[in-house]
Amino acid sequence: MKFFIDTANLAQIKEAHDLGVLDGVTTNPSLMHKEGIKGHENIIKHYKTICEMVPQGDISAEVVATEFDAIIKEGQELAAIHPNIVVKVPMIKDGVKAIKWFTDHQIRTNCTLVFSAGQAILAAKAGAAYVSPFIGRIDDSGWDGSELIGQIAHIFNIQGYQTQILAASIRSALHITKCAELGAHVVTAPLEPILGLLKHPLTDIGLAKFLADAKAE
Ligand code: E4P
């Protein structure tokens, strides 16, 4: 399973990259806003910087257009920034049409805001490179988001869809482990859940004892 970081924060991208386990980055308009990245030119510049910082991986850049022609125009502009850019398109009717258009024109897409297996099937049929089920937001609404990952993985497997499952809206280290267990190809998480994977109290206790014994007379 690949690890993407879900942020537009350059310091956090660097920290995950320096850990040596980073395979890519996802962003969205809310994450860009959180970092104070505003205005077309600044947004394009910020994507360029991220692409240079993480040359080994795919970088999802989201369109804000919701009408077919405008999605195509915006997506083409984003795709032109760097070969690693994947155009993130929302799961709406014009979005699905645009994903098919981008697929036919060799532009890779990430279908975002996916909350059901039916939506994932539609994105795969349109040729999306990635489909992003938002498991944390499903959990927040009182359903089990992880179950959706397992369901999509099963469907994609038996149908032979090439679209990769990019588990998104990750809230915890446990979410990451669950996604790996259920067959997600990629997980995109904020830095905290990624670093959360490091933690176990027995590791801390064991290390303290080893260090103490190493110093003992
Ligand atoms: C996916 O690519 C989105 O950027 C993200 O995972 C949304 O997560 P949130 O529910 O924490 O906003």
TrEMBL record:
The keyword Membrane does not apply. Its main location: cytoplasm. It comes from the Bacteria. InterPro entries: Aldolase_TIM, TAL/FSA, Transaldolase_AS, TSA/FSA_arc/bac. It is found in: Cytoplasm. SUPFAM superfamilies: Aldolase. GO terms for molecular function: aldehyde-lyase activity. GO terms for cellular component: cytoplasm. CDD domains: Transaldolase_FSA (cd00956). Keywords: Cytoplasm, Schiff base. One of its GO terms (biological process) is ketone catabolic process. This is Fructose-6-phosphate aldolase. It comes from Chitinophaga parva.
